[in-house]
Amino acid sequence: MRKILDVISEPLMEAFQEAGYDAALGKAVLSNRPDLCEYQCNGSMAGAKQYRKAPFVIAAEVEEKLRARADFGDVFEEVSVVKPGFINIKVKGVFVAKYLAGMMEEEKLGVEKPAAPKRILIDYGGPNVAKPLHVGHLRSAIIGESLKRLGRFVGHEVIGDVHLGDWGLQMGLIITELRERKPELPYFDESYEGAYPEEAPFTISELEEIYPTASARSKEDEAYKERAMEATGELQRGRRGYQALLRHILDVSVTDLKRNYQRLDVSFDLWKGESDADPYIPDMVRMMREKGYAYESDGALVVDVKEESDTKEIPPCMILKSDGAALYTTTDLATLVWRMKDYHPDEVLYVVDKRQELHFIQVFRCARKTGIVGEDTKLTFLGFGTMNGRDGKPFKTREGGVMRLESLIDGINEEMYRKIVENHETDKEEARQTAQVVGLSAIKYGDLSNQASKDYIFDTDRFTSFEGNTGPYILYTIVRIKSILNRYKDGGGDADACGMRDGGAATKPLMLELARFNEVMENAFEEKAPHKVCAYIYNLANEFNHFYHETKILGEEDPQKREGYIALLVLTRRVLESCIHVLGFSAPERM
């Protein structure tokens, strides 16, 4: 379905052409003075220099051609030229109602599938195994999940990969600590040839205690760290017992990670890790050596990635350390090897902390230079800012430690539960369930309503408020609409059979906002900007609530007018629910 701006622009472009000017000058845009008009065309300003005419003269000629059109009265209510040469436009309510009726017939409310859908792989997890999720993992999960859903909604094939941190020294530390505690386990006996136990020799709680203990000890005990580094090397060289332990660590960790991600309503298509890239490293390194891309520097293997246009120093991309060990750059490059081999994506999008920008500049340039990724695949770095406490510093617990993600979720849910039972007489169990749904909206909307690249303050009081630009406010609006539609149904009405109609001045602002839906969704994905969806539904919710307070909906005596109002509510609910689904949360039936 064409965007409403394109429908409005078409007669304008033809009028420009008929007046002897470039048709492209006739593009309509939203008015920056909504007190004066709904849309405007600024093409006369742009054409003044090209045609050596005053913009007001061009605009007046175009207006004359526009008014002469047979379909002028079908679209335009009012068109005026104002100095220095703007064309101000108001459209007919009947025209907008007809456009909205077309939206209601579409499964995706007018969002067209792209002519050439892309296959896009999003890397948006990155948690380390054997460690609990903490608030530092929140933004990647929330932003990445939203982009995955948004991409699918607008018609692309989008694949989400968690990309676990399951390789490197942390694995060696766990193995070393476990060996000291339980040396009798068969995994440490190099002569053992039997089958290893199916059950892991630790629980998730034990595993989450083992790693920080081992990490702290390695910083004070150099011999212990050396043993851990040796264990890491043996694991990466394929020692059978250590490989079996790695599988146990992954099984136990992934089960717990899935449980926590589920609480955020975040899911991944692929549960791959750095270890999955390991088999591709030897051939990749060999290729880089043989083709002359990689060379030794102070014992390490590196690839130069600096460019003449660089305004700051970009160090060489290190492929192997002097001891032959792999690094994050190595596994990220090898991960691209298998992603290209197995999926041939049109784009690989990394949703990661913006402080990792230099790392990804090096990885992207190295991947391009060495031919791992061809020119037809786009590599995108979406760096997000930090989530901070009210003191402006990274979010911490009261004790000063990094807060576990499940603790943050529990705290928000408790606050929502308190507010729900304070304001309403309700069943306690239902209130708990509602608090979880609304609490998730508070967390996700609170994050996504900020531009991804910017830091933001996580303010529990503000995010859980039912007023203002918050998730609970959006959900309260949806629940209000559901309540009205349910009452209409209880009175014998069929909301789905109601047709869209022009409701005059009372409905027009809401109708115009609804008509922007397809443009907003497509633009938000193109710019990788979920915050634009948040801004849109906040404006839409405000327009609906203004309409609600100013209009008798069910009390309207004219049955046709009442049916038009109901149709408008049905579409508003569908648009809002489509948007919150893309943002990663849902609305309860009651609040």
Quick take:
This protein has 591 residues and is α/β, with parallel strands linked by helices. The protein is 52% helix and 10% strand. It has helices at 4-18, 43-51, 55-67, 72-75, 93-104, 138-153, 169-181, 204-218, 222-236, 240-263, 274-277, 281-290, 328-343, 357-369, 405-423, 428-448, 460-463, 471-490, 508-514, 517-526, 530-550, 559-583, and strands at residues 28-30, 39-41, 76-82, 86-91, 119-123, 157-161, 294-297, 300-303, 317-320, 347-353, 378-384, 387-388, 456-457.
Description:
There is one protein chain. By secondary structure, the chain is α/β, with parallel strands linked by helices. It has four domains: 4-91, Gyrase A, domain 2, CATH 3.30.1360.70; 119-166 and 273-384, 3-Layer(aba) Sandwich (Rossmann fold); 169-263, no CATH class; 437-583, Isoleucyl-tRNA Synthetase, Domain 1. It has helices at residues 4-18, 43-51, 55-67, 72-75, 93-104, 138-153, 169-181, 204-218, 222-236, 240-263, 274-277, 281-290, 328-343, 357-369, 405-423, 428-448, 460-463, 471-490, 508-514, 517-526, 530-550, 559-583, and strands spanning 28-30, 39-41, 76-82, 86-91, 119-123, 157-161, 294-297, 300-303, 317-320, 347-353, 378-384, 387-388, 456-457. The strands form four sheets. A four-stranded antiparallel β-sheet has the order 1-2-4-3. A four-stranded parallel β-sheet has the order 6-5-10-11, sandwiched between helices. A hairpin with a 2-residue loop joins β7 (294-297) and β8 (300-303). α20 (517-526) packs antiparallel against α21. The relative contact order is 0.10.
Task: Give the topology, please.
Layout (H helix, E strand, L loop, with lengths): L3 H15 L9 E3 L8 E3 L1 H9 L3 H13 L4 H4 E7 L3 E6 L1 H12 L14 E5 L14 H16 L3 E5 L7 H13 L22 H15 L3 H15 L3 H24 L10 H4 L3 H10 L3 E4 L2 E4 L13 E4 L7 H16 L3 E7 L3 H13 L8 E7 L2 E2 L16 H19 L4 H21 L7 E2 L2 H4 L7 H20 L17 H7 L2 H10 L3 H21 L8 H25 L8
